[in-house]
Amino acid sequence: MVVGRRNADYQAFSKKLRQKLEEEDDMISQLPDPLICQILYHLPTKEAVKTSVLSTRWRNLWLSVHSVDLSSWDFQNLNDFVSFSDSLFDYNRVSCIHRVKLSIEERVKAGLDVVSYVKSWIDSGVKHKIQHLHVRCPPEFCYELPPSLYICDTLVILELYKMNMVNAEFVSLPRLKTLTLEDCWYSNESTFERLVSSCPVLEELKVDIAWNDTKVFKVKSKSLKRLGLVRVSPFKFDFVSGVVVDAPLLCDLSINDHVSESFSVNSLRSNAKLDVSMYFGLRCFDEESVSSRRNSIRSFLLGVSSVREMIICPRTFKIIYEYSKLEPLPRFDCVSRLCVTLCVTNLEWLSTFLESCPNLKALILDWNGNAKKMPINKMSGISFASVPKCLLSSLEFVDVKSTIFGYAVEMKVVRYLLENSRILKKLTLYLHYHAIQDDFVMRLREIKRGSDECRVVFNGLVKTV
């Protein structure tokens, strides 16, 4: 649905621009060639080629455009797409090709060797000093990346979708800064490791591991700054190898991994941001199940203990809480901003984790579940017996993202924060109209606060209560 909408928007833009070019041909034709080529750069190649019929002035301009953007969706069938693309790359271009984007969405038809064509197109791009390559193919292609791409000294951005990564003995990508690999297949574990480690200036890496790939993935890079890793599967495997990250300059780590049984982070900068949704290969999240991953959880928490900002999903937070029953959590001394979502019935876990964040300055809190239907015995269990150090000495901002209806458990959480936060400057609450209609605000005024400077913000309106 999203791809279709994007294509429709792109086609509408192309049509409008082409009409504009036709209407203003005389004026635009007076522009210098480089400027016209820059205009054509933003069109799909098929549309850019059509401008050649406008006049003799335009006949060959499209050949100087530094971009090739081709999608099989723009053609009536795959044969037409291949024929057009092959003739395009066969041109003996004088100019460089800075960007090549190939999107093949159709299934492969019998007798049509698309794989060989794609290889020749990419080889042509490498020959013409390509800087940005984006290739998306159907999974049945089993397309292998051509060897020429592994030693491309001009490539800056590489985006591959459903590619078969060959185990090249030599890889040299000296200028590659951004690498995206989605559902690609690697012949062995060293293939991925060698690819990443052979990019000396790589700054951003996005990896979406195929659902049935159980290999160990090692991310070793001395230059990497941003890493996004996705590893999810609808099936449960007997054993799934883990992930190892060794990137001393990493400052942004996003993990969505429900499969790996271990995730080791060897080094992370003290100003790094961590967004984590990890299950450690578990399907159950009780204390007994968590105990079976005790060593893996400890290793991961120690590896990320120096981060500055943390975003934690509900199930990962539950795993961490169950782990805290087995042994103390490491201290997160550098964490100044924490965004956490947890189940409404487990709000009492919050203070346990905050004990490990002594220098927290900003807390973004969200809970899911129906506070109205919370059992009495569960609500009475939310005692918040301890007051973490951060509430006494560092916490300045709290943003409760959950919509407040005015239920007892919600008031209990708000009361705990207001009474015990000694230097709190701002508490943001998002009130449902039910809460506005009842005496929720009046009850807030009765709370004895720990900070005289605290402002309470309701739905963006600042009030002092």
Automatic annotation (TrEMBL):
Write down the InterPro entries for this protein, in alphabetical order.
F-box-like_dom_sf (IPR036047), F-box_AtFBL13-like (IPR053781), F-box_dom (IPR001810), FBD (IPR006566), FBL13/AtMIF1-like (IPR050232), LRR_dom_sf (IPR032675), LRR_FXL15/At3g58940/PEG3-like (IPR055411)
Which SUPFAM superfamilies does the UniProt entry name for this protein?
Answer: F-box domain, RNI-like
Q: Which Gene3D superfamilies match?
A: 1.20.1280.50, Ribonuclease Inhibitor
Domain named F-box is located at 25-61
- Pfam family of the protein (one): LRR_At5g56370
This chain belongs to the protein called: F-box domain-containing protein
Organism of provenance: Microthlaspi erraticum
